[in-house]
Amino acid sequence: MGGFSILTNRKRAIVALVHSVVFLLIAVRQMMASNPAAGVWVASAVSRGTWILCGIFAIVSAILLWLLVISRGWMEQFYFGFCTVSATSGLVRTAAGDQTFHAGLYIRVAMLVSAVLVGLLIVRVHSQMHSHTQSRANSRTSSECAEGSS
């Protein structure tokens, strides 16, 4: 498929969509919990969990940035772009703290909502292509059976 280099089939698109939905639910839960991030640049003691979360966000942001760079089609680029901005805003918010980058929480949720919408579109495109390919294969098989019985 010409427009995709990573999400090349319906199964991959569904797996990516499920990941986006799960991370969206986590981000919404964090937003509702209103547990402010202290940040690692603040003079207070930083918990081990905050450092681990920063490390996870850094790794995920780097991987998503690489996927954005190697993606080909516009839908795939938008999808990975939204995911990259979401993860990076989570990293900046965790590192800087809510007092410095409170909007990061809302940016993260907005980007994940956008990623889910684009992910649904990608799954729909693959589903339409799959059903179109399936119907062509079925019509070929039935015409071969008709020729064989003649």
Report on this model:
By secondary structure, the chain is mainly α. It has one domain. It is built from 5 helices and no strands. Helix 1 packs antiparallel against helix 5 and helix 2 packs antiparallel against helix 3.
Concise summary:
The protein is an all-alpha fold. Helices cover 81% and strands 0% of the residues.
Q: Average pLDDT value?
A: 85
Helical stretch tally = 5
Helix/strand-derived category reads: mainly alpha
The helix fraction, in percent, is over 70%
Unreliable spans are none
* Integer-rounded radius of gyration: 21 Å
Biggest β-sheet, characterized? none
- Total E-strand runs: 0
Beta-strand level of the residues, as a percent range? Answer: under 5%
Shape: elongated
Number of domains: 1
Write the topology of this structure.
Blueprint: H1 10-33, H2 48-70, H3 74-96, H4 98-101, H5 103-149
Helix pairs in contact: 1-5, 2-3, 3-5
